[in-house]
Specification:
heterodimer, A: mainly beta, 4-stranded antiparallel beta sheet, B: mainly beta, 6-stranded mixed beta sheet
């Protein structure tokens, strides 16, 4: 019954590895997002998809590649992980792109690079 | 571009004290404004929102009024509880589609 669910909750891996984080929403929303939260709690948008179409692609290294197989899923694949990628990654969704729509967040994936 | 500025934390209050967390914004057009709360180890939850000038959002005893003249959306609560300890984020939604968040204000309420 969780609205936005992310897996895994914790991810510990070595530098240079490739990893994926999955996100699913059961709210029937059209729009999904990935945010990165750094150690100081600052949240920054990475990507946004609307009906499986990429809308926002902020200045993110191309090692990060989002994939949306359908509008209920938005996965994040990261190649060649670096120490600076350590952060908490949040998936979110909203009904659509209108500015007054609130976003619903998952519980986050804490990525730690050794 | 759009931006949100929040007061620096951490804020430490005794139970039943009055809370204000300041938030000001810079934006073109007519943004919507939000407060989100993040409890330890959890994702962000919408606390309240306001979509036009002079709107007041309220939820769980928290209130914030959208003031266009002062470009502010300060969060207030009359009597905080220990369970209100969390990080509070002010956010702005505008034509850029993604939310623009402030840096967050950590609140600790002591018994």
């Amino acid at each position: 019954d969780t609205a936005v669910s992310q897996t895994p909750k914790y991810l510990v891996t070595q530098m240079g590895n490739d990893k994926s984080i999955k996100c699913e929403q059961n709210l029937g929303h059209d729009t999904m997002y990935w945010y990165k939260q750094d150690s100081k709690k600052f949240l920054k948008i990475m990507f946004s998809y609307n009906n499986k179409e990429l809308i926002i692609n902020e200045t993110v290294p191309n090692r990060f590649s989002p994939k949306s197989p359908d509008k209920a899923h938005l996965n994040l694949h990261i190649n060649s992980l670096e120490l600076g990628d350590s952060a908490v990654y949040f998936c979110a969704s909203s009904q659509d792109l209108t500015v007054n729509q609130p976003q619903h967040f998952g519980d986050g994936t804490r990525l730690s690079i050794l | 571009g759009d931006s949100v500025t929040q007061m620096e934390g951490p804020v430490t209050l005794s139970e039943e004290a009055f809370l204000t967390i300041n938030c000001t914004y810079t934006a073109t057009g007519y943004p919507s404004l939000f407060w989100y709360v993040q409890y330890p180890g959890e994702g962000l939850q919408l606390l309240l929102k306001a979509t036009k000038a002079d709107d007041k959002g309220s939820n769980k005893g928290f209130e914030a009024t959208y003031r266009k003249e002062t470009t502010s959306f300060h969060l207030e609560k009359g009597s905080v509880q220990v369970s209100d300890s969390a990080v509070y984020f002010c956010a702005l939604g505008n034509s850029g589609y993604a939310l623009n968040f402030g840096k967050g204000t950590s609140l600790l309420v002591t018994p």
